[in-house]
Amino acid sequence: MVSPSEFAQRRQRFLETMGAGVALFASTPVAIRNNDVEHEFRQDSDLFYLTGFDEPDTLLILSNEHPEQRMVLFVRPRDPERETWDGPRAGVDGAKSQYGASAAFPISELGQRLPDFLKDVRRLHYRLGEDRELDDRVLGAIHDVRAKARSGVTAPREIIDPSVIVHEMRLRKTDAEVETMLRACSITREAHLRAMQVARPGRHEYEVEAELLRVFRANGSERPAYGSIVGSGPNATILHYRKNDRLMQDGDLLLLDAGAEYGYYASDVTRTFPVSGRFSDAQRTLYQIVLDAQLAAIDAVRPGATIPGVHAVALEVLVKGLIRVGILEAPLEAALKAETYKPYYMHRTSHWLGMDVHDVGDYHVNKEPRPLEPGFVLTIEPGLYVAPGSKCAPEWHGIGIRIEDDVLVTASGHRVLTDGIPKSVAEVEQILAQRPASG
Description:
Layout: H1 4-18, E1 22-26, E2 32-34, E3 37-38, H2 45-51, E4 59-63, E5 71-75, H3 80-86, H4 91-97, E6 103-106, H5 110-118, E7 123-125, H6 132-146, E8 158-160, H7 163-171, H8 175-198, H9 205-218, E9 223-224, E10 229-232, E11 253-258, E12 260-262, E13 265-266, E14 269-274, H10 281-299, H11 307-324, H12 332-338, E15 364-365, E16 368-369, E17 377-380, E18 383-386, E19 399-402, E20 405-410, E21 413-416, H13 425-433
Parallel strand pairs: 1-7, 5-6, 7-8
Antiparallel strand pairs: 1-4, 2-3, 4-5, 9-12, 10-11, 11-14, 12-13, 15-16, 17-20, 18-19, 20-21
Helix pairs in contact: 5-6, 8-9, 10-11
């Protein structure tokens, strides 16, 4: 887990990079689920990255203009009555003693105090457009400062998005972040292994999903990193399938895309396996093509490589395989140029991974693909999806396969953080053969 000292180091790096000015970061708004019931609260990733503070109704100020108040938190005050209902709060004192704020105030005083932090500040670092209500309060504070111009006070003249700095920081993982992600991946491994034990013909997809959630929580995961995809049979060909309510049948493949979140860091893993225990010949053939593509793409991950380059490696293996089995027509170059593979492989191979499952960070620098660097974490997830009714031989119809792992770029190459979750044909069938009779 990330220590308080690392949070402090992050704030210091941000301030050094920011230079002159004041930065504002707000918590995620509380969302109402129905009537007076709230959705589960998860802190804004940027605010948590800089503080470790996970309460709603929070505003963080980082300032290079106020030497005595470089970190200020506006928070919910202590309230014994509300804490009886909703749980303990850090309060103003806890914001200072537990989270390192040099000053803290009740969030109710934001309107009164914010103009003071913007006086004689030329540059405000604030992300407009995320929260309209807060935008109005910030712009109102700027207006209040402008109203005092005759007394010699100046208001901010520039508003700059601070996420440009924070997201560059988040892209490069520290040792503590990698260790936290490894824990998320370890929990995910246990959940996928359990899913392979319980998935079988005659059970519903949601029964597998329930076991995933149970294992996540039983091992300390706060929540899934994203909505789990549990797609059997033809549902495996739907990229973002969410209903998870089909009764699994003999001969089905089950595509399981699920990852735990731990300490605000995500894992993201997909495995595909036959619920009956053994792949059919057609399933095995396409599965091996996807696995070969994934292994080749992982092998291409190293400093200086690019995500488009890694994608191209996976794509070539996939297309060669589709040509070999007769789903696509040769030659390879023509198939790639005409993108005749798109009905069967329509997504990219990788995305950044970190605090968010589709994590922040630019994919291009100066309009060129960004070279990978040590500390970057990305997914490698090729797939093939032959929907029912596709323009190929019926033997392939209804087969959906994706294999996904989380990969850290290292100084010498890469490290697969999700290593140990079975994925070769022999490993998968061996695990399934060892299932107890009743699951």
